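Blinded run. Sample ID left blank on purpose so nobody reads anything into the name before looking at the predicted structure. Input follows.
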Amino acid sequence: KTSVLLACAVKIGALLGGASEEEAQKLYEFGEKLGLAFQLQDDYLDVYGDFKTFGKRIGGDILCNKKTFMLINALNHATTDQRKELDEWLSATECDEEQKISVVTRLFTEIGVDAMARERIGEYFLQAKQCLSNVNLPEERKRLLGEYALQLLGRQS
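Blinded prediction complete.
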């Protein structure tokens, strides 16, 4: 949802600004890749972020068993023992919230989904930059979009 919303906003702006359909589509692809990077970073920061800088409770996705990139990849790459432990926490109807966040975060790290997420964020960002470089606009206008992308992804843990 996030990536399509951003992509549509960029494309609409391009069309309203007089861009051709082809150039608007290139900008759509830029917005889509940037939105994917942003959403994945949001999922990452929900697990590994700092409340003071992230601005929302850490571990909320874990507590509601949200099917994020992090959880899906943890389930797909877990050893038998790790999968069993994850499944126990996912099926628990009542538990200590802080303990669940702590254990699931530990499992995510052991499985390596933190590194997978950081790598994928970087890949999406590079794809977004490539899409932007393919747009036939003056460099100054592309520079502003590039700066926006950096600001959007500049949120820190």
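Unblinding after everyone has recorded impressions. The chain has a mean pLDDT of 90.
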